[in-house]
Every structure is written in structure tokens, then in C-alpha cells.
Design brief:
The complex is a heterodimer of chains A (about 80) and B (about 290).
Chain A: H1 15-31, E1 34-38, E2 41-45, E3 52-60, E4 63-71
Antiparallel strand pairs in A: 1-2, 3-4
Chain B: E1 4-7, H1 13-26, E2 31-32, E3 37-40, E4 45-48, E5 51-52, E6 58-61, H2 70-84, E7 89-90, H3 93-100, H4 102-111, E8 119-122, H5 125-135, E9 137-140, E10 152-155, H6 160-170, E11 174-178, E12 185-192, E13 195-203, E14 212-214, E15 218-221, H7 226-237, E16 243-251, E17 254-261, H8 267-273, H9 277-290
Parallel strand pairs in B: 1-2, 1-6, 6-7
Antiparallel strand pairs in B: 3-4, 4-5, 8-11, 9-10, 9-11, 12-13, 12-16, 13-15, 16-17
Classes of the chains: A alpha+beta (about 80), B alpha+beta (about 290).
């Protein structure tokens, strides 16, 4: 069985709710353990010492988009992302 | 011991838990992923990893794919064939079909007079724009979706027409629901075999610092009003599912139903109420088979 695991979530919220989500993700980066759950799906990520950060912002017609991508290589002896 | 297969997704929390629970009771663990099933017609054998599903005593459908899509209807048709040839399936595939399609579920609820948020269903962008103006703000919902993926919020105003046109290019039939103010949470009211089991709430996140991010809200215990309970009971009874979760919001104007779901997850029930829904469903199925 593959170790690949993915989690997706998409919704519409007010800025306060989105701030709350981002703050808890930030807290996970600080603690080096990010747990994302949504209605039965869960993924646990363990950010390492060096993370790659990519930021993209775009405005076209009446639609704006901000994407923040944080990626890293899991070290081979780190615990499995699946719990 | 009966041989019972669980139709679900590998690594899915609820599917794996149900398969493990069945294994404890019957000695056989069989988690069936529908993409691995083939149906031979007209003979009617249905194979999964060398097992003819007709040799089983029952199937429990926990989930039929990781994402909601028209493909899932095709998979249900395979199960419907087995069911019509006499294999007990919980819930019956024909009944799952009626809730899986958002439109079919909505029409059944509305025809029975179940209160839902105001709704417009149209293929006409001009009618969609009128609905948005009337509602002030509306959520455009894809007909097949899970956990709000692909939903679009469109507010009345000068940009609405362009936003509607963009959405309409991808979704010909538009399902447009008035955006209603939620009281900080919405409820999952759960029924087993048509009888009330429990209720949990998904609380919309506050600014709490916590290293777990509960997208879509955190599960909490909640005891619904008798009015909410009666409404949820009436809504689920229209579909006759063995296990179902009715999504309800308690608004100032009384409770409204968003949808009836055939694949409610077990985790919220366990976290909020400490009730093992997998065990309850397994026991329900075993009792039904003994009848």
C-alpha cells in the first residue's frame, strides 16, 4: 500500500474564520506537528528544520488569488505521516 | 458466522474502523474498494480480489469513493444489481442513490415540506442573478460534492453577473441557496435503522490556538431541541437508510435541514459523544441478518 496521503478542504468563510485556521496552522509549524482534520479525514505532517516557502499573488479581472506553499522533504527516519 | 463485506475506502477512518469491527464479530475482515470490483453480465457474478461478492451474506456500504462524482452513481448501480439479485446491502443502493444526488435529495425533502434555506434551481443565468439579488448573498453548490468543495459565494452587486457566468460555464444547472447566518455551529443528527442515535455539533472555529486545525469545525456534544429532533426524524424517514446523518442548523426562524447524508462519518460521533457508531451499525446489521 502506498504511503501517499492527501487532504483537501475548500470552503467559504469570513476573514475571522480564515485567520483562526491560519493561526492554528502557524502554531503547528512552531510545534513541528501539523494535524489537519475535516469530517473524518485527518493528516499529520511534521515540518523539518528547513522549509521551502513559495508565495504567489495574482489579480485578474475581478478575481484575486493568494497562494502560500510550504513544502519540505520528510527525513527517512521520521514517523509515518499516517496515524 | 455470516460473511460481511464493508464497501469503503482504504485508509478512510470510518471505513477501516467498520471493517475492523466486523472482523471482531465475524472473524473476517473484508474492505471492498469499488474501483476493484467488476460485474460480469448477464451471469451476474461480481468479483473483488478473487472473491465473488455473491458468496457473501451481506454488504455494508460505508463509502463508495473518496470524492463525490457521477462515477459514484455508476458504482451504486453495480451494487444495486447485486441487491436486486438478493444480496442484503445496508443501506440499500437504490436508497443511497436518492440522497447522493443533491438535487434528488432536495426535491424529496421539499416535496415533503421539510424546511430548508431558500433555494433556486435554474439553468438560466438571468434567473440566477435575480435569485442572488433577492437573497443578498447566495451559495452556489455543485450537485456532487463533499465538505463544501467547489462551492461559490456570490453577493448581490455589480460583479454578480460575471461571477454567475463563470460558474455557469462549469455547472449548467445551478443550485443556489440563500446564505443564512449560522448560530456558530451546525448539527449532525444521527439515526441508525430509522431510530435516533445521537447528535453532534460542528462548531465554527474560534480564535483558539491549537495545533490541530479542525477545518469545517470541531465536534462537540449537543442536545437538539425537540423541534429539531422531530424535523430530523421526519427528514431521514423519507429515505429509509440504515445509517444516516441529517445536517441541521437551528436558526432564529427555527431549524432548517441542509441535507440528508448516506455516508456520515463515525469520528464526529465518537469525539463528541463517545458513541462507537461502527459497533452500533455492525450490531444493527447482524441483528437484521438474524431476523
Amino acid at each position: 500500500m502506498s504511503d501517499d496521503k492527501r487532504f483537501e478542504y475548500e470552503s467559504i468563510h469570513d476573514p475571522q474564520t480564515i485567520t483562526a485556521y491560519l493561526q492554528s496552522v502557524l502554531e503547528g509549524i512552531v510545534q513541528r506537528r501539523i494535524v489537519l482534520t475535516s469530517d473524518g479525514d485527518e493528516i499529520v505532517l511534521r515540518p523539518g528544520n528547513l522549509l521551502k516557502l513559495a508565495v504567489k499573488a495574482k489579480r485578474k479581472d475581478d478575481t484575486s488569488r493568494l497562494s502560500i506553499k510550504i513544502s519540505w522533504k520528510d527525513s527517512p527516519n521520521s514517523e509515518s505521516a499516517e496515524e | 458466522m455470516p460473511r460481511i463485506g464493508v464497501v469503503g475506502t482504504k485508509a478512510g477512518w470510518s471505513s477501516e474502523r467498520l471493517a475492523a469491527t466486523i472482523a471482531e464479530r465475524t472473524g473476517e475482515r473484508l474492505l471492498i474498494e469499488m474501483q476493484g470490483v467488476s460485474l460480469d453480465l448477464p451471469g451476474g457474478s461480481a468479483w473483488f480480489q478473487g472473491i465473488d461478492l455473491r458468496d457473501l451474506d451481506a454488504l455494508i456500504v460505508k463509502k463508495i469513493g473518496a470524492r463525490y462524482a457521477p462515477d459514484l452513481l455508476d458504482r451504486l448501480e453495480i451494487l444495486r444489481f447485486l441487491h436486486e439479485r438478493g444480496l442484503p446491502i445496508f443501506s440499500a443502493p437504490g436508497r443511497i442513490l436518492r440522497v447522493l444526488n443533491r438535487l434528488s435529495c432536495t426535491i424529496t425533502l421539499q416535496a415533503a415540506g421539510v424546511p430548508m434555506p431558500p433555494l433556486t434551481i435554474t439553468e438560466d443565468p438571468a434567473m440566477a442573478q435575480r435569485a442572488v439579488e433577492r437573497y443578498g448573498a447566495a451559495v452556489f453548490k455543485p450537485l456532487f460534492t463533499t465538505k463544501a468543495r467547489g462551492m461559490r459565494l456570490i453577493e448581490a452587486g455589480p460583479a454578480a453577473a460575471a461571477e454567475i457566468a463563470e460558474y455557469h460555464a462549469r455547472h449548467r444547472l445551478m443550485y443556489i441557496q440563500q446564505k443564512i447566518e449560522l448560530p456558530g455551529r451546525d448539527l449532525g443528527v444521527v439515526f441508525l435503522g430509522g431510530r435516533y442515535l445521537t447528535t453532534y455539533a460542528r462548531r465554527i472555529p474560534q480564535n483558539s490556538w491549537n495545533s490541530t486545525t479542525y477545518f469545517g469545525g470541531r465536534y462537540e456534544a449537543h442536545d437538539p431541541s425537540s423541534e429539531t429532533l422531530a424535523l430530523a426524524e421526519r427528514a431521514q424517514a423519507l429515505f429509509g437508510l440504515d445509517f444516516t446523518c441529517v445536517d441541521v442548523a437551528e436558526t432564529d426562524e427555527g431549524p432548517v435541514v441542509f441535507e440528508v447524508s448516506a455516508f456520515g462519518g463515525f469520528r464526529g460521533i465518537l469525539e463528541a459523544r463517545e458513541i462507537d457508531a461502527a459497533a452500533a451499525l455492525a450490531d444493527h446489521v447482524l441483528a437484521e441478518l438474524r431476523r
